[in-house]
Amino acid sequence: MDKRSIFAAVVAAALLVLAAPAAATADVGAGTVRVVDRDVDYTPDKPKEPSLAGSRVDVVCLRDAPWITFEVTLTDPDRQSTGDRAVLVISDGTHEVSLPLGTLASGRVAGSVLWPGAAVSGGVGTGWPGWVYEGGQWRETAGNFAWTRGDVRAWIRVDPELAVPLAYPPATSGCAAPTGSIQGRLAATGTSGDILLPLVLAGAGAAAVGLVVVLSVRRRHRV
Q1: pLDDT digits over 60-87, tens only?
Q2: Among the listed residues 82, 13, 76, the one whose alpha carbon sits nearest the alpha carbon of residue 47
Q3: Residue-wise pLDDT tens digits, 81-92
Q4: What is the domain extent for residue 30?
Q5: Residues 69, 171 within the same domain
Q6: Residue 188 near residue 168, CB atoms below 8 Å
Q7: Which of 20, 24, 25, 112 is found 20 to 30 A from 95 (Cα to Cα)?
Q8: Which of 142, 143, 125, 123 is nearest to 179 (CA)?
Q9: For this UniProt entry, which segments traverse the membrane (predicted)?
Q10: pTM
């Protein structure tokens, strides 16, 4: 083969390489070959967003005290969450309160907290939202988180957030509200002591009148 033929072959080979739509490189090592196509855009997998799915809150009454029980579960396979402290946020659109629930361990935390405005002593309820003890009597007030007994929204916040249903429990035998009397308890119906007292007096008066009538009738029969 003469020099012209060799030169023509080299030029043809160079043109083929330049005209190729994609160039490839091979990495050889440990008996493996990896081919990388430089004309293909590489798009990494999108990380999965963290989720609080399955987390929940409930309201229970224990010895006249309203408690919020909770179970928070964070699913974060790609470690996208930037927080590890769970908080329960309650709002009526005007007011807002945040209740710390604790620090997540292995993506989970569970427990219970008192309803805002509630208090206990020796495990027994001694304070309730919207009530204040003054002058030996319980009185309703617009303070002490009274708004939490109305229509509220709630959500668990870690990173991300999750809306959860929540409402103040109705009066029951296990979750009584305070009374106007010094004894500090209401019946399960929620009737105040100021209303109960006249009813008791009226009942006692009616019983006394009935007793007088019965005795009078008996005396007439004897005569």
Answers
A1: 999 999 999 999 999 999 999 999 999 9
A2: 76
A3: 999 999 999 999
A4: 3-37
A5: yes
A6: no
A7: 112
A8: 125
A9: 195-217
A10: 0.62
